[in-house]
Write a structure and sequence with these properties.
The chain is mainly alpha-helical. It is built from 3 helices and no strands. The radius of gyration is 45 Å and the shape is rod-shaped.
């Protein structure tokens, strides 16, 4: 019916409850008699219990500080990542411009006459329109 681990857990629980009950009975007897068993050991145990309690309160305060600290650290991390991404994009942009200048002949670009008859007619109309506007504005 019980597995071995369940049986061990039940035995440990039972013994723990008996010891706790014994300690309450011992304390009640000590208060009635006015006598303390093992006073040095009791003082040492009380001191250690107070230190443990103070440490637990300290840990509680530290755990309470974790969420705000996490937000501050996350904000700092996002800020640094954004600055790094901006720096990388500027470097990539400069590299792209250098590459474009290297492979392009556009920096010494000279306009040649177009072979398209349509574009020739459009440019003539533009030139004639601009010259007619100049003559009307000068009159």
């Amino acid at each position: 019916m019980f597995t071995m681990s369940t049986l061990i857990a039940v035995i440990v629980l039972g013994v723990s409850l008996l010891v706790i009950g014994f300690l309450f009975v011992l304390r009640a007897w000590e208060q009635r008699q006015g006598h303390i068993f093992f006073p040095y050991m009791r003082i040492t145990a009380d001191t250690q219990a107070l230190k443990l309690r103070a440490f637990m309160f300290y840990l509680g305060d530290c755990i309470a500080m974790i969420p705000p600290m996490t937000v501050v650290l996350a904000r700092f991390g996002v800020h640094q990542a954004a600055l790094g991404a901006a720096r990388l994009s500027r470097e990539l942009e400069a590299g792209a411009h250098r590459l474009a200048d290297r492979v392009s002949h556009r920096h010494r670009f000279e306009r040649k006459e177009t072979r398209s008859q349509f574009l020739k007619e459009v440019s003539e109309v533009k030139q004639n329109g601009a010259s007619s506007e100049e003559t009307t504005s000068s009159v």
